[in-house]
Each structure stands twice: as C-alpha cells, then as structure tokens.
Amino acid sequence: MALTPDDVVTKQFQHVRFKDGFDPDEVDDFLDEIVIEWRKALEENAELKAKLAAYESGEAAAAPAVAEAPAPAPVVQAAPAAEAAPSGSATATAGIIELAQRLHDEHVAEGEAKRNQLIADAENEVNRIRTEAEAKQREETARHERERNTLEARITELRNFERDYRTQLRSYIEGQLRDLDEKSASTDSTPVSAIGL
Fold first, then answer.
1. Where are the alpha helices (DSSP H) in the chain?
2. Could you count the other beta carbons within 10 Å of the beta carbon of residue 109?
3. Which residue in 41, 55, 43 sits closest to 82, CA to CA?
4. How far apart, in whole angstroms, are the C-alpha atoms of residue 13 and residue 30?
5. Residue (of 96, 81, 133, 107) closest to 22 by Cα position
6. Which residues form a coiled coil (predicted)?
7. Which residues pair with 68 in a beta bridge?
8. pTM of whole model > 0.70?
9. Separation between Cα atoms, residue 28 and residue 33, nearest integer Å
C-alpha cells in the first residue's frame, strides 16, 4: 500500500466502547504501516542519493586512475546516507508517534470535555426538576391547607347549626308539651257540657 501524508491526516479510527480513545490494535497496525512505508521511502532516498553520487563521481573522472578513486567514494557516501536513514526513519517515526499521541490526547480531552458538559447538563436538569417538584409540592401543600381550613370552618358551621337546631327543636317540643299539658289541665276542670260536646 502506497501511503501518502493525506492518508495519515485523513485516517479514521474506530471508537471503542467502554474505553476512552481508539482501538489500540488498530492504531498500532496503522502506525506499523506508516513505519514500513517511511522506511521504504528513506531506503529509496538513500539509494537514489548513492546513485547520484556515483553518477556525479563517474562523470567527473577523466582518467582511469582517477576513475578508480571515486569507486570507494560512492560506498563512503552511501554509508552516511544508509546511516542517516535509520536516524531519519527514527525521526519520522517519532514525529508520527508524536502526531498520533497528540491526536489521541486531543480526542481524549474532547471526550472528557463532552463528558463533563453532559454531567453538568444532567445536574442542571436534576436541579431544575427538583426545584419544580419542590415548588409544586409547596403549592399543593398550600392548596390542601386552604381546603382543610375551609372544611374545618364548614364542619364548625355545621356543628353550630346542629346545636342551634337541636336547641330550637327542644324548645319547640317542650313548648308544645307545655301547651298540651295546659290544655289538658284546663279541659279536666271544664265540664264536657260547657265545651259543647
């Protein structure tokens, strides 16, 4: 696979459930691909530099004696290039690892910020619901208290009415009994012939 810088920039990793960040195996595999491609590029670069140096040294040689001297030169020039390749590869690998680590840290920080925001939103919602419930409870308690006071006043009014009604009924019955007793006493003393019967 020919890896380009755009591939590195646009690479998307799968999110892993129940963990922060990306699937470590997928990230490691991708970094391994990057390292392989970069090593190939560095080896090819070193090889091309050696060929260029050999070509330039071959072109500069005019005599066969001089031509023998440049023969070791490409080897000497190729050796530093070959030696530079691992350090360049290490630098490139370190840069890619640093980039991957930075991306990882950014995603983790973004995830933590989102988590904190969700928790804050949930806490605000809980506080809002609790406040509304407490206000509703106070309102219902006040309404029930008003209803209770109204019912207690009505009960007191009905008890007073009952007491007054019993008193009036008793007075009326007692008055009727007195009248009946008076009439019966007056009828006992009056002869039947005087009444007209």
1. 5-10, 24-60, 64-68, 72-189, 192-195
2. 10
3. 43
4. 9
5. 107
6. 119-154
7. none
8. no
9. 9
